[in-house]
Design a protein that fits this description.
Elements lengths: L1 H14 L15 H17 L7 E4 L3 H4 L2 H10 L4 H11 L3 E2 L2 E2 L2 E2 L3 E2 L11 H18 L6 E4 L2 E4 L1
Antiparallel strand pairs: 1-7, 2-5, 3-4, 6-7
Helix pairs in contact: 4-5, 4-6
């Protein structure tokens, strides 16, 4: 999976398809730039004696709530080829779980949402799945700034 993760990250970097506001699970960027931008935003407001509004958001159960169909569609939308899409679908399709109870083991329960816990590929797949939202929010409003680190968002 590490090889597949690296290939996915490299492809996204080469084609510049992910929002630059997303710093989570990226190989080169981190929170330093976000910290600087937030500090500059607050300092500018203080210096100009103007109001500053900042909202911190943490998406509830973010990694467990993304439908697999959204992940697959997002991969297709940003331009991954059919072979790669099929590979990812094969990793996720047919996933199921069972519950052990006093009566025994349940029938298999299909897992239709969420990225796989502990899988190195999960972070980049999550980023790809929410990428459209980050881009659309900022598309026509350059004054709307989002600082994203995976599912943690700061709205300026």
């Amino acid at each position: 999976m590490k090889c597949l993760t690296r290939k996915t990250q490299d492809w996204c970097s080469l084609h510049q398809v992910l929002s630059p506001s997303q710093k989570g699970f990226t190989p080169f960027d981190g929170v330093i730039e976000h910290n600087f931008l937030l500090a500059q935003h607050l300092e500018t407001a203080r210096r100009n004696h103007s109001d500053s509004f900042v909202a911190w958001l943490d998406i509830s159960n973010a990694f467990g709530s993304v439908p697999h169909s959204v992940i697959f569609q997002a991969l297709k939308n940003i331009g991954f080829d059919e072979d790669f899409l099929t590979l990812i679908q094969n990793v996720y399709m047919g996933s199921c779980t069972s519950i052990i109870s006093d009566e025994g083991l349940t029938d298999p329960i299909p897992i239709l949402r969420g990225v796989k816990q502990g899988c190195p590929l999960s972070g980049i797949l999550f980023n790809i799945a929410i990428n459209h939202v980050l881009i659309e929010v900022q598309k026509d409003q350059p004054t709307h700034c989002i600082l994203a680190f995976a599912d943690d968002l700061v709205l300026l």
